[in-house]
Design goal:
globular, 15 helices, single chain, 407 residues
Amino acid sequence: MKSDKTKKTLIIQIILFIATGIGTTIAGAEWMYGKSLLFGEVTITSSELLAGLYFSVPFLGILTAHEFGHFLTAKYYKVKVTLPYYIPLWLGFLPMPSIGTMGAFIRIKGLIESRKEYFDIGIAGPLAGFVIALLVLTYGFTNLPDADYIFEIHPEYREYGPDYEKYVYADQEVSFVVGDNLLFLFFENFVADPEKVPNNYEMYHYPWLFAGYLALFFTALNLIPIGQLDGGHVIYGLFGHRKGRIVSRVLFILLVLVSGVGLIPSGPINTDFLINAVFYLLFLYLALHHFEKYKWKRLLYIIWIMTIQIIVFNYFPVASEYGIYMVFAFLIGRFLGVDHPKAIVDKPLDLKRKVIGWIALVIFVVSFTPRPLYLEINEKARIEKPGLEEKDRDPSEIIARGMIKRF
C-alpha cells in the first residue's frame, strides 16, 4: 500500500505533467502559426491549437525518454529515485513567446556508491533522449511540407515568390532566428530535400524540426561537462576525481568568460557604467560561489575574468553574442556546484563505458548551438524606418515591439 505522502507526490507529478503538456501544446501552436493565444488582432483558433500536439508530443516524448533513462538505470542499481517532475512554463499571458516548459528532473534520494553507477545513471538520460531526438528529426526532415507551406502561415510573402527571403527580412526591424548546430547542418545537407528545407528565420513553424532542435539544445545543456550535470558525471567517469575536477573547473571558467562578454559594462565611464559594473561584479561573485570559497581569491578571479572580457569585447565583438549561457553558468556556480563528489568505490571504468563516454561528448558537440534562439535587429531597417521618434529607434524599443507583435 502506498503511503499518503507517496500518493500526494504522485498526484503532484501527474498534475505537473498535464500542465506541461497543455503549456507545450499551446506554445507549439503559437510557434507554428506565428500567433498568440491572448495577444494580437488575430489569435489562435481551436483547430490550430490542436495542431500544437505536433510539437508537444515529440518534444515531451524526447524529454520523457531522457528522464526515464536516468530513472530506470537508477532503479537497476537499486538507488532510491523519484519519478520525473515536469516544469510547466507557458508565458503566453505576457507579450513574449515561450516553449511551455523548463524541462523536467528526477530526484536521487539514495546513495550512489561507485564511479560506474554515477556514470551509468548520468549518461543513460542523454543517450535515451538523443536516440528519440534522432528519430524525430529523421521523420521531420524526410517529411517536410512543400515550399508553399510557409505561404499558408505568412500569406504576405506570396508577392515575393520563391525568393521571398531575399526581400522580407531586409525590411523587418527584428526577427526571431533559430541557430545552427552540426547535427541540423547534417540533416539539412544530406537527408532532407534541399528545396523544402526552411531557412533559420522560419524553422520554428515546423513543429517536428523545432521539437527536435529544442531537445538537442536541452541535451547539450545537460551534457555540459561540469560538476553534477550529466556531462559532469561523464567527465568524472572518464577521468576520475582529480583530473575530472581540473577539466570541470577549466571548462566552467571558459563558460563564464565567453558567456559573460556580452554582459560586461561598456561605453563611457559615467554613473550608468558604474552601476552596471557593480551589478555585474556582484553577479560574478555569486556565480563563483562554489568555485572558490575564499572571498579574496574569488575577487581576484573576478578581476581577471572582467579584464579578459573587456579585452575580448573590444577586439572580438562577435563573442558578445553568447550571453544566454551565463544563466547556466550562474546556476552551476551558485547552486549545482562545479566539482563532482568522489564516489565510495572509485574504480576506473571498463573500455566499453569509456567508449560510450566519448560518444556522449561527441553528442554534446554535434548538439550544441552557440546561439540557440535569438532576436536579430536589422539596423538598416531601424534607421531608415520613416516616421519614428527617436525613442522608437532604440533597440530595446524595437525588441519590445517585436515581442508584442510576436512574429
